[in-house]
Specification:
alpha+beta; six-stranded mixed sheet; five-stranded antiparallel sheet; 2 helices; elongated; disordered N terminus
């Protein structure tokens, strides 16, 4: 066995044989004719909508939180790749992260890719990646499995010297969707895509008018307690206790002698 391993290592070093556990997954490629998106949102509510296969190139500043959203269908496996290019020299290393959330703002785990890489101070850029789990057609509410709906993507820097805040960067991002392998094989279907309720309520400009009081109620009956309330039972209990005390005293007192 040792001889076989050494022979394989020698062939690999010589370039005659490459041993890999599994074939490396191909990076997502832009869709033909897809327009490049040149903007990003700053929160979940202002996230810029993109489609899988649509390239993104946007200029930003170090420290900004960039948000995008994309649709996800059942049976798809999404792969996110992002490259942050530094325009100016920096004073120290910086750590970047890419996070993905589903329609209910639940953070989804990455199965592969450099999700939080650290770039050295002398680096000219950093590459991030995240491969999500296959979207399921349905799941239990407590499971946290990815379900169809709108997904949100956030790119930000988590650790860097304070002097490097605000330096210009250029971000190239692409989301790929792979349907190879079919669905998850689970029975059932999600009734509707998961989308958070972002519709705000109406703003009241004036104080609401009080509801009119019913006219059939008299002023005398307004302060009386309701039948069956604790005040009625308390009063009845007090009366019965007084009567029982008087009767008991009459039965137990000694007759007067003349």
């Amino acid at each position: 066995m040792r001889t076989l391993i050494r022979s394989a290592a020698a062939l690999t070093a010589a370039g005659g044989l490459a041993l890999t556990p599994t074939a490396a997954a191909a990076a997502p490629t832009p869709s033909p004719g897809a327009a490049t998106v040149t903007k990003a949102g700053t929160s979940f509510l202002t996230a810029t909508t993109i489609n899988p296969g649509q390239p993104v190139r946007v200029g930003a500043s170090t420290g900004d939180h960039l948000y995008w959203s994309f649709p996800a269908e059942a049976g798809e496996v999404h792969e996110v790749t992002a490259t942050v290019s530094f325009g100016k020299a920096r004073t120290g290393p910086s750590t970047w992260t890419v996070d993905v959330f589903d329609g209910l703002r639940r953070r989804q785990a990455c199965t592969a890719g450099a999700q939080t890489p650290t770039a050295a101070a002398t680096a000219t850029g950093v590459t991030l990646g995240c491969t999500l789990r296959r979207v399921r057609p349905w799941a239990e509410p407590w499971s946290g499995d990815p379900l169809p709906g709108t997904y949100y993507l956030r790119l930000s820097v988590t650790d860097l010297p304070e002097a490097d805040l605000g330096l210009p960067v250029e971000v190239d991002l692409l989301v790929g969707a792979d349907t190879a392998g079919g669905g998850s094989g689970d029975d059932g279907e999600l009734a509707a895509p998961l989308v958070a309720n972002t519709r705000a309520g109406t703003v009241l400009t004036a104080e609401p008018a009080p509801e009119p009081v019913a006219g059939d109620e008299s002023a005398f009956s307004g302060w009386l307690p309701e039948p069956g309330s604790r005040w009625v039972w308390t009063g009845a209990g007090g009366v019965l206790a007084a009567v029982a005390g008087v009767v008991g005293f009459a039965l137990t007192r000694r007759p007067r002698r003349r």
